[in-house]
Amino acid sequence: MAKPLVTCLWFDGQAEAAAKYYCTVFKDSKITQVTPMVVTFELNGNKFMGLNGGPQFKFDEAISLMVNCDSQEEIDYYWDTFVNDGGTESVCGWLKDKFGLSWQIVPSNIGELMETPERAKRVMDAVMKMKKLDMKKMEEA
User: The CATH number of the domain where 13 resides is what?
Assistant: First the structure.
């Protein structure tokens, strides 16, 4: 039987602080184990392990976690929570949280908005002008 995948996030001694923070951001979340080396936790049913691996490796944009949002209010909540608590805005719905982890805060209907090449181009033209995504503008594109 296949086991579910678990995402391992490498931190420089901040794994427990990060897990606690993420569990405050995502309502359906919990820490399941804490040891000096690792912290296991769940965010909205997704399993993660935070590793206190040291300063050798840093997060970069090659990996990001995508949050699918059903409303502009949800987009605003996640975006504002991360950015206003030490994160940094990027473009096209991307940001970095205070631990340096990249997130994409996107509408859950993004696949529908990109169904045809013509529509995808219009939506992407609109998205390229945004930092935080605006669902209404994307849907109108």
Answer: 3.10.180.10
pTM: 0.94
Over residues 97-109, the mean pLDDT reads 98
Residues 63 and 51 grouped into a single domain:
no
Segment 45-71 mean pLDDT: 97
Same domain, 51 and 75: no
CB 31 within 8 A of CB 73: no
Angle in degrees, CA 20, 18, 104, rounded to 5: 110
Number of domains within the chain: 2
Query: What single string gives the DSSP state of each residue in 97-129?
Result: -TTS-EEEEEETTHHHHTSSHHHHHHHHHHHTT
Residues 35-73 as b/e (b if ≥16 CB within 10 A, e otherwise) read eeebbbbbbeeeebbbebbeeeeebeeeebbebebeeee
